[in-house]
Structure formats: C-alpha cells, structure tokens
Amino acid sequence: xxxxxxxxxxxxxxxxxxxxxxxxxxxxxxxxxxxxxxxxxxxxxxxxxxxxxxxxxxxxxxxxxxxxxxxxxxxxxxxxxxxxxxxxxxxxxxxxxxxxxxxxxxxxxxxxxxxxxxxxxxxxxxxxxxxxxxxxxxxxxxxxxxxxxxxxxxxxxxxxxxxxxx
Length: 166
Known about the structure:
alpha+beta, 4 helices, 6 strands, 16% strand, globular
C-alpha cells in the first residue's frame, strides 16, 4: 500500500475528485485501513491500493471542489461524494483508494473490506458513482416523508368546502 498522491487522472474535466475505475473507502483509523489492504490481498485481489490520512483527504481531495469562498457547482454526484468524504475525514476517518480491474467484483471487494471497518465505499465508474456501502442514518428514530401536506386530507381540509359541516 502506497500513500495517495492525487494527480489529474483522479479528477473529472471540472477538476473534481473522480478516480474512474477505483473504489474509495473510508475507515475509522489507519489500522483498519491496513487490515483491509491485507484482507484484499488474502482474498486474491491484486490491484494497487493507496492510503489517505484525514489530513491528505482534506488537503488534496476536498480542495478539488474549489475554494471555500467560491464553491464550484458540480454537474453530477461527484461533488456530493466529495462532501460526504470531507465530512468523514473531518471526523478523523482514513481513506483507501483501490484500483479495480474490469473482472473485479465489487461485492467481493465489499466482503473483504467491510468486516475490517469500512463505513462507506464509492466505486467510481465511467458515468456513475456506485455507493457500495450505504451509510446508515445516525439516529434510529423513525423517519417520515410528507409529500403534499394537504393531499392526504382531501375534502376534510379546512380550506376545501369550508362552508360545509364536518
């Protein structure tokens, strides 16, 4: 495992972090990253891996979004992914960049790295970023979505037929 050195092949045309053909995974600490790299090797994975400390993530990857004074809008999800990566790196999470061969199965990769502590992993394909380990909500309280707040009330809403008895 080598240290991550960001170069132009790891960004899209707008300069935002987008390492096509790679998975970028985040772990709670450096030891988990090393265990994941060993687990990949044990599983027969032969691609290159690169380690990124939280400082490297914040200094190199996050800066691809632009300066804080003039944030650059992102056309796709890559900006959102960088912001998620930045949030985790800001909490001390470490990264592992894994090059994928065309015959590498993402499921096999996840099976090797998730038990080692991977909290999220993004597979950067040519036109899509696949979230291999979706993050769980921070609190376990039930979540609700209200669409069209008055739609469910129908004719019973006070503004509809307000002169009619209920």
